[in-house]
Amino acid sequence: MREQSKAVAAADSPWLTLGAPVLFLLLWSAGFPVAKIGLRYASPLTFLAIRFALTVGVLGIVFAIRRPPLPRSARAWSSLIVIGFLVQVMYFGLSYLAMTAGIATSVLALIVSLQPILVGVLAPRLIGERVGARRWTGLLLGLLGAAGVIVARGRIQVESAGPVLMAIGALIGITAALLYEKRHGTVQDPVTANLVQYSVGFVFCAPMAALFEHAHVEWNVTFASTLAYLVIGNSLIAITLLLAMTRAGRVSQVASLFLFVPPGAALMSYVFLGEVLPSLAWWSMALAMLGVGIAARAPRG
């Protein structure tokens, strides 16, 4: 009962309602072009293994200083391990492999943005969460706007089915992670939760990198900068915000935020990679934002 009261209070927090979604979207959207830059200097699984190792190292130091509590049950441990595999190995691993295999960053972002539609279909059956007509309208408007950004950029060029299948696998991973977190997740200290989950990512990715890659890494300032951003911005801050918002609110409402990722990634690609956005892309971006707003503010049913 006490945990339920805490969850209700968290859901009403202005920070989780306004600040956390904005910060999460900025960090998550920038992750696509930043990762693309980093993949110029390292093979994908090796890149991820280094990223996870650095993240675990930082979290290990914080853990030793703060000494937060460990999970108290086998169910809590298994929940962290499953979510770590779904997010770190399936979502990030398959996304990096897809980018290396030739899929455009914007196409990958668009495929992953289908997540709210999957959540809307599966949430009533798996976690008993009702998704009303107003939220469906917002989700579809957001998806239409996101697709418009990609079409306006003229970047939908996929050479083979392999990268697309990898992107779909990444989509399945992040969707399953949100649904599993909502149904089976337990409240844990963020340091403990992230330390376990990134350890899972490292344990899976490091051996695969050793077995299937030549461990190509070109160390330079640019590569080090991308690693620093991905470790701190994506690995430590963004994932913590995502899981916190998922526990505090409706999973379909949180998932609707991902519809802003394609236009957000397009904007970040303009900033970091100099890719020009046509005027149609800006209008489509506005439509995506409108859809996100409708879906996120839909009344509880």
TrEMBL record:
The chain crosses the membrane at residues 41-65, 77-97, 103-124, 136-156, 162-180, 192-212, 224-245, 257-274, 280-298. Keywords: Membrane, Transmembrane, Transmembrane helix. Its main location: membrane. It is found in: Membrane. Residues 23-150, 164-294 form the EamA domain. Belongs to the EamA transporter family. This is DMT family transporter. It comes from Paraburkholderia bengalensis. The lineage of its organism: Bacteria, Pseudomonadati, Pseudomonadota, Betaproteobacteria, Burkholderiales.
